[in-house]
Design brief:
- With about 220 residues, the protein is of the alpha+beta class.
- The protein has six helices and eight strands, in the order H-E-E-H-E-E-H-E-E-E-E-H-H-H.
- The radius of gyration is 25 Å and the shape is flat.
- The chain starts with 10 loop residues before the first helix and ends in a 7-residue tail after the last helix.
- About 10% of the residues are buried.
Length: about 220
């Protein structure tokens, strides 16, 4: 090939999809086990071994047809209850769930951390107790890193097992649920809103113009 398409042309992804669809006809299984968007592919399987075999089959089939799988950008995500990585939040994270504690918490002197009332396994009101042992120090709470492994070897290439992964702008969490996706969307929305603050707070722009910016960029209409 000596001539390509223009940069940003809509013809480029269309040609890519047509070619990739024809090349992968022999070894693709389709949705929901394969989610293909442009050149990003998500393989879904019931077990880690099955997912590795799918990746090997896809890799060998693509390479036989002259293409290449970018193994440096390939990641694994093992999903299941309690398989996510607990992230610390707040100034004083709970020793058990790692989220920030409030007033209803007890301090454990041995590890120097605070414990939520709901995580403390204490019935009744909380009070200072030097003999108290938190569930994590007793080995009764789930591990902070619930991943069964942090790396996977695929034909000599070591791939990372991620606790979370961003796919098509949405966050997928190894523990399941939509909490991480909601947090990510809220942070993105607030970030975009702060970029509009110089316009919304400017005295050189009329209120009507600023109102139009708010209605167009901030408020979302609800369609019945």
């Amino acid at each position: 090939m000596k001539v390509g398409v223009h940069q940003g042309s809509v013809l480029s992804p269309l040609l890519f999809i047509l070619v990739l669809k024809a090349l992968s006809r022999a070894f693709r299984t389709g949705v929901p086990w394969e989610l293909l968007y442009a050149d990003d592919l998500a393989l879904v399987a019931d077990s880690l071994e099955e997912c590795i075999n799918k990746l090997k089959a896809r890799k060998s089939g693509i390479e036989e047809r002259g293409l290449r799988v970018n193994m440096n950008k390939t990641k694994f995500l093992i999903s299941g209850p309690g398989l996510d990585l607990l992230q610390d939040s707040g100034d004083f994270p709970c020793a058990v769930c790692r989220s920030g504690v409030g007033s209803n918490a007890i301090h454990y002197s041995q590890c120097g951390l605070w414990v939520h009332k709901k995580c403390s396994a204490i019935k009744g009101p909380l009070h200072a107790n030097p003999l108290y042992v938190c569930p994590r120090c007793c080995g009764l709470s789930r591990p902070i890193d619930g991943r069964p492994c942090s790396q996977v070897d695929v034909d000599g290439t070591v791939l990372d097992v991620e606790p979370s992964f961003c796919y098509l702008g949405d966050m997928l969490c190894a523990g399941g649920g939509c909490k991480l996706a909601i947090i990510t969307r809220c942070r993105t929305a607030w970030g975009k809103f702060r970029k509009l603050l110089p316009i919304l707070t400017s005295r050189h722009i009329s209120l009507s113009t600023r109102g139009k910016v708010v209605n167009a960029s901030v408020y979302t209409p609800t369609w019945q």
